């Protein structure tokens, strides 16, 4: 660097360097903090220009001028995109709280973060992000179902998923409790117990309405900008937002989060989209469904079939292949058997071929033709047909190709790193739109919260998608964490797996009028890993509560001995896991008849 005399000349020279270089560091070659600062930029692959002041005759004069310009005489003295950043500590702090990225970017945007989708994951992420002082907007827009059903803020879980489903499940259990009460001596005089669909539906929809309202209030009070608009990318930092009335607005943002969730899929057969409903419509159905066919054999279909049967409807499930693909098949079959014993009919293996309307009405009357695996045709009439054959991610037609976000070409699920970053670096994805992740509310929430912390603080913790517990809310609930037995055998070999199992009494006071020995639990252990428990499965009342409780133990690597060492709580269902001593291999009778 040529020596320049006079502070005005030095000032002009410093300004020139600062303006010409994205990262400009005034440094000293032997200074350890200067080395650290340079290493920091190297570690994030950012080029910098450094002037080593100790090698210049006028180095001290430059430091004096820097002090006059910035208030800082010490080195390193760093500028980014023309703005003064400071010394090493400031640089490190900026890296940790992500403002370094913002300075390096050099652009200014309307928002630091725009979340597309105000469901479980999107709301959790937006609310976490604002806590860290950044500007956040959240878009949520519900396209009506083919039957015209629509709903408010909160996404699938609150409006057409977990919450109304659990309430209908509870309503059906309540019906059994009334039966149970009779066996304790309660009597109903004259009046017969009858279920009223409309009353239940209205109560549930009122509850959902209040949740929608609370979400809006919460966003406002936390200063997240909420827009009831549909988002489509224009470029990787700009989105087009279209509201219900077709009004268009553009927003720019440094980061985007894809949290659009999924919607029910329809099989491509005549009459299906016109005449069938899905879980998007069932929970707000204005009339009692009557004789119902549920097509599909996984979570949604079995849960809906379960509560509808328990509420007194004539229900059939059309199963294409197996029940609950991906779950422990022994448990899945036990569920099917229990449901069949309690009135649900099953047609299997069978797929629907066509659906015809015989009568309009609420409910109407429809003829469903199905094809059994052996080619036989089955025909029956139903008032309501619930299609539950899986869900497609809402990733089509929103410009993901324009911004270079890679999706699975077959399914449309978003491909992302283990830190939820997509192939477009400033766009992330969480929840049901992600490929290969469990489609569950707590997973979307956890991923959203942790991602917001990583984006706007120095946090590094990623969402752990392993050992995610889940529960199928069929009439007899099924809770699971870890591997199904067949997966464990595949992975470790039959010889290395020990399965402990037991029937258990669902407690005389819980289900007095039901058969004994339907409730069942098993622990899957790996012998060579000191009997580490790699799968816990339970079929019985409150299986969700039980499984949640044991989740921490499984995540911490609990062994069978740890389970044995835990003292049970009597009389509960969960205590069965502390006293299991019969292996499946032994063939010993596992029936129980008392405590
Ligand atoms: P969602 O909650 O689906 O939210 C996405 C939101 O984005 C929606 O409001 C959508 O309309 C909106 N959106 C889409 N595209 C755009 C766009 N371009 N612009 C603006 N907004 C857009 N999980 C459990 O853990 N337990 C259960 O018991 C359970 N039961 C379920 C029962 C049923 C019947 C169903 C269908 C699902 C159930 N789930 C359950 C799954 C759970 O609901 C989902 O995993 C969860 O809601 C996913 O959250 P998300 O944030 O990814 O998406
Ligand atoms: P899934 O993708 O889990 O299952 C789809 C079901 O439909 C399978 O039984 C499948 O059979 C069957 N199927 C697929 N295509 C056809 C067809 N053309 N004809 C007939 N049957 C067909 O979807 P769900 O809708 O049940 O659930 C979606 C997700 O929502 C779940 O994965 C879950 O994560 C979440 N969820 C969670 C709940 C909970 O936590 N309790 C409750 C409800 C949903 P096959 O096995 O032969 O492929």
From TrEMBL:
NAD(+) binds at residues 296-303, 390. Residues 23-84 form the Glutaredoxin domain. Disulfide bonds join 157-162. GO terms for molecular function: flavin adenine dinucleotide binding; glutathione-disulfide reductase (NADPH) activity; thioredoxin-disulfide reductase (NADPH) activity. Binds 1 FAD per subunit. Residues 468-580 form the Pyridine nucleotide-disulphide oxidoreductase dimerisation domain. CDD domains: GRX_GRXh_1_2_like. The active site is at 570 (proton acceptor). FAD binds at residues 166, 231, 432. Residues 111-448 form the FAD/NAD(P)-binding domain. Its EC number is 1.8.1.9. Belongs to the class-I pyridine nucleotide-disulfide oxidoreductase family. This is thioredoxin-disulfide reductase (NADPH).
């Amino acid at each position: 660097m040529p020596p320049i005399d006079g502070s005005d000349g030095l000032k002009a020279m410093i300004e020139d360097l600062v303006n010409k270089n994205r990262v400009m560091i005034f440094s000293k070659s032997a200074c350890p903090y200067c080395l650290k600062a340079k290493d920091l930029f190297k570690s994030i692959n950012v080029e910098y220009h450094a002037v080593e002041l100790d090698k210049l005759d006028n180095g001290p004069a430059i430091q004096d001028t820097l002090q006059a310009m910035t208030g800082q005489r010490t080195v390193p003295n760093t500028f980014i995109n023309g703005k003064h950043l400071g010394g090493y500590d400031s640089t490190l702090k900026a890296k940790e709280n992500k403002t370094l990225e913002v300075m390096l970017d050099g652009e200014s945007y309307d928002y630091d973060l725009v979340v597309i989708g105000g469901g479980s994951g999107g709301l959790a992420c937006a609310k976490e992000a604002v806590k860290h002082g950044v500007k956040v907007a959240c878009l949520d827009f519900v396209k009506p179902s083919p039957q015209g059903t629509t709903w408010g803020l909160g996404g699938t879980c609150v409006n057409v998923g977990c919450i109304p489903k659990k309430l209908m499940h509870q309503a059906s259990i309540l019906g059994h409790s009334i039966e149970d009460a009779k066996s304790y001596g309660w009597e109903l005089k004259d009046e017969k117990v009858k279920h009223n669909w409309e009353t239940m539906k209205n109560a549930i929809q009122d509850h959902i309405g209040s949740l929608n309202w609370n979400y809006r209030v919460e966003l406002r009070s936390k200063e997240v900008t909420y827009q009831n608009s549909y988002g489509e990318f224009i470029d990787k930092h700009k989105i087009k937002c279209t509201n219900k009335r077709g009004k268009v607005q553009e927003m720019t943002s440094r980061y985007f989060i894809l949290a659009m969730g999924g919607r029910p899929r329809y099989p491509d057969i005549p009459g299906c989209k016109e005449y069938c409903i899905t879980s998007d419509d069932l929970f707000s159905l204005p009339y009692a469904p009557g004789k119902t066919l549920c097509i599909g054999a996984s979570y949604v279909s079995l849960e809906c079939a379960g509560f509808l049967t328990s509420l007194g409807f004539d229900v059939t499930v059309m199963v294409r292949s197996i029940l609950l693909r991906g779950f422990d098949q022994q448990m899945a079959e036990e569920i099917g058997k229990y449901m069949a014993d309690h009135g649900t009919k099953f047609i299997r293996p069978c797929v629907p071929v066509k659906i015809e309307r015989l009568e309009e009405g609420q409910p109407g009357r429809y003829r469903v033709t199905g094809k059994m695996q052996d080619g036989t045709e089955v025909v029956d009439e139903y008032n309501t047909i619930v299609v539950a054959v899986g869900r497609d991610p809402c990733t089509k037609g929103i410009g993901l190709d324009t911004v270079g976000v890679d999706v699975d070409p077959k399914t449309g699920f978003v491909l992302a790193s283990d830190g939820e970053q997509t192939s477009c670096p400033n766009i992330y994805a969480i929840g049901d739109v992600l490929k290969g992740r469990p489609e569950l509310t707590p997973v979307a929430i956890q991923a959203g919260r942790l991602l917001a912390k990583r984006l706007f603080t120095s946090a590094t913790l990623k969402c752990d998608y392993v050992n995610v517990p889940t529960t199928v809310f069929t009439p007899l609930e099924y809770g699971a964490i870890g591997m199904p037995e067949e997966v464990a055998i595949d992975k470790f070999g039959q010889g290395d797996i020990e399965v402990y199992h037991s029937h258990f009494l669902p407690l005389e006071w819980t289900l007095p009028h039901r058969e004994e020995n339907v409730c069942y639990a098993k622990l899957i252990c790996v012998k060579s890993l000191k009997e580490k428990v790699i799968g816990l499965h339970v079929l019985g009342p409150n299986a969700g509560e039980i499984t949640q409780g044991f989740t921490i133990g499984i995540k911490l690597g609990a062994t069978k001995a740890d389970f044995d060492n835990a003292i049970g709580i009597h009389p509960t269902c969960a205590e069965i896991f502390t006293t299991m001593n019969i292996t499946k291999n032994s063939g010993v009778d596992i029936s129980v008849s008392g405590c």
